[in-house]
Write a structure and sequence with these properties.
This protein is mainly beta. Helices cover about 10% and strands about 35% of the residues. The chain has two domains: about 20-70 and about 105-150, Beta Barrel (Elongation Factor Tu (Ef-tu), domain 3); about 170-245, 2-Layer Sandwich (YaeB-like fold). It contains three helices and twelve strands; from the N terminus they run ββββββββαβααβββ.
């Protein structure tokens, strides 16, 4: 009797198990990999029926989790077989499967983040996360514990991305910004988040790392605050903070 083949459906349908509530409310400024900004915090709010404590029994013993998520903030569909990775300055094309670009054949992402706690309340269960690289509102399809013996491979080679990106900019704050940070209950936490995000130089690849003067004023929304900053050589100067208004 010959082997039988089972045809797969043309499309799979997935229902998110939860949604991320992140300090990153817009795409600009999000670190390009998880863990680069340890101060970047988020909650993962679970949807029924996965918002019950028994679904997470034993997970508190793990320090990190994998999140399988949807790139919901970009246009869906592939953009071609090659992309320009920022790590190569945006000047060189490589195959889409040789990158972790958000422009995938299917808009699915994978991120390992620190698990800071599991909170159980009247509105169900939510996970407290850190070191995230996820946009606010990101739908999560699945959660898996990180296993160091299986997931950490010290002998692995990483091609053009063999090392973590360097901190490219020193970050300073205008006097008025210093006073505002000092007046906020979360000022120290917000300062560390700003320093880590801007230190990686989130500008477009053709400007990132450029030692020449850049007259533009950039804006990034972090933790509900609009941060305005400019770059002079290797220094990012934060010139203004504003409470975000939609």
């Amino acid at each position: 009797m010959g082997a039988q083949t089972v045809s797969a459906p043309d499309a799979y349908r997935f229902k998110p198990v939860g949604v991320v509530r992140s300090c990153f409310e817009e795409k600009f400024g999000i670190p390009r990999q998880p863990g680069l900004v340890p101060e970047a915090r988020a909650f993962l709010q679970l949807h029924p029926p996965y918002d019950r404590a028994e679904a997470f029994a034993g997970l508190e013993a793990f320090s990190h989790v994998w999140l399988i998520f949807v790139f919901h903030g970009i246009d869906s569909g592939p953009r071609g077989l090659t992309v320009r990775p920022p790590r190569l300055g945006g000047n060189r094309r490589v195959g889409v499967f040789a990158t972790r670009s958000m422009f995938r054949p299917n808009p699915i992402g994978l991120s390992v983040v620190r698990l800071d706690g599991i909170e159980r309340g009247s509105d169900g269960v939510r996970l407290r996360l850190a070191g995230v690289d996820l946009l606010d509102g990101t739908p999560v399809l699945d959660i898996k514990p990180y296993l160091p013996y299986a997931d950490s491979l010290p002998e692995a080679q990483a091609g053009y991305a063999d090392n973590a990106p360097e901190r490219l900019l020193d970050v300073a704050f205008a006097d008025s910004v210093e006073r505002m940070l000092d007046s906020r209950a979360d000022g120290a936490e917000l300062r560390r988040l700003i320093e880590s995000v801007l230190g990686l130089d989130p500008r477009p690849a053709y400007r990132s790392g450029d030692g020449s003067g850049d007259p533009r004023i950039y804006g990034v929304r972090l933790q509900g605050v609009d941060v305005r900053w400019r770059v002079d050589g290797r220094k990012a100067l934060v010139v203004e903070l504003r409470e975000a208004r939609d």
